[in-house]
Design a protein that fits this description.
Elements (H helix, E strand, L loop, with lengths): L1 H20 L8 H29 L3 H4 L14 H10 L1 H32 L5 H13 L2 H14 L7 H8 L6 H13 L3 H9 L4 H12 L1 H17 L2 H7 L11 H6 L1 H9 L11 H33 L5
Helix pairs in contact: 2-16, 4-15, 4-16, 5-8, 5-9, 5-12, 6-9, 10-11, 12-16
């Protein structure tokens, strides 16, 4: 009898430690928690390392760049690097133009992709499967494949050098990654009960009125996701922007921060005209300051909208859950 009680007590202790280390259905175990934290910390370090390195280097004076001991922590905060980078990139003017290039095509893309996704989800149209397959094929086709024919077409239509080179394709459902956004809205609108739309139409609303009164308010999570993705992709695009808008300076024509960053060295020399032994000679700290300034708007936007963005991604189901 005593041996049986000892055996039961031993099994209970084993089960107790098993729940602590491995966990149960209700609670995660210690080993799994440690593994998850180590994995997440490693992934975060991989993504944050370049940003932290750029930030640290951009705040270093010239002397720290030559001192191997000052690898991460600068001896003093040297903000003149940012001042030089702002002058070189004509930062505030370029930032405004970059915002225009990203905002208006994004706005057109959100409106059109939402309407197309709603139409495909709500109505039974002839050849619906064919049009869905066609949308998927346009998503699989890289934009670099069609940029030369598009450039020839835009040149004949006198669209090159203007913002219409981006707005017009977005209005026609062919903006950057429009096929992906159409699928996001299509899957989201499929989950909306048709009874809500039908009730609105019974009350006298037209199909377009029901779309704006019912579909749009319910699709706010999908709209937030598309706004952020579309804005970031238009903001970061350099190849097509350079081709369609031209390689203009920030003082004339449309340009972006990334295009100004590509010609940073030439712009710096035109602003400061440094000679061989000049104290104003371009260095890595000024280059890193320019890089930080080019990504700062997106970082700030994500930090402000982080909570809403994560919730919207979860609700739209684009994570595959």
């Amino acid at each position: 009898m005593r041996n049986k009680l000892d055996s039961v007590a031993l099994e209970a202790r084993k089960e107790h430690w098993k729940k602590i280390l491995i966990g149960s259905n209700e609670k995660r175990g210690l080993l799994l928690s440690i593994f998850m934290y180590v994995l997440l910390t490693s992934i975060a370090f991989i993504f944050l390392y370049p940003v932290l390195y750029m930030l640290s280097t951009s705040l270093m004076p010239r002397e720290d760049l030559l001192d191997s001991a000052a690898k991460w922590i600068p001896s003093s905060i040297y903000l003149k690097n940012y001042y030089d980078a702002i002058l070189t990139m004509d930062y505030w003017n370029t930032l405004f133009k970059n915002f225009i290039i990203a905002f208006f095509p994004m706005l057109a893309q959100v409106l059109i992709c939402s309407m197309v996704g709603y139409g495909l989800a709500r109505f039974e149209i002839p050849g619906k499967v064919f049009w869905m397959i066609l949308v998927l094929l346009t998503f699989l086709l890289p934009p670099q494949v069609t940029m030369i024919p598009n450039y020839v077409l835009y040149s004949k239509l006198k669209l090159t050098g203007t913002l219409w080179a981006f707005i017009l394709p977005a209005l026609l459902g062919m903006g950057f990654k429009s096929a992906l956004f159409i699928l996001i809205f299509y899957n989201f609108h499929r989950q909306v009960p048709h009874s809500l739309v039908e009730a609105c139409e019974i009350d006298g609303a037209s199909p377009m009125g029901a779309y704006f009164k019912i579909a749009v308010p319910l699709s706010i999570p999908a709209i937030v996701v598309v706004i952020l993705f579309s804005f970031v992709w238009y903001w970061n695009e350099t190849t097509l922007t350079q081709m369609y808008l031209g390689y203009a300076s920030s003082s004339d024509g449309l340009t972006t921060l990334l295009l100004e960053l590509q010609k940073f060295e030439d712009s710096y020399e035109s602003v400061y005209n440094p000679w061989e032994a000049s104290p104003n000679k371009l260095n890595d700290a000024i280059r890193m300051a320019g890089t930080m300034l080019s990504i700062a708007p997106l970082l700030i936007m994500y930090l402000v909208l982080q909570k809403r963005f994560v919730e919207s991604v979860d609700k739209t189901g684009i994570t595959g859950e």
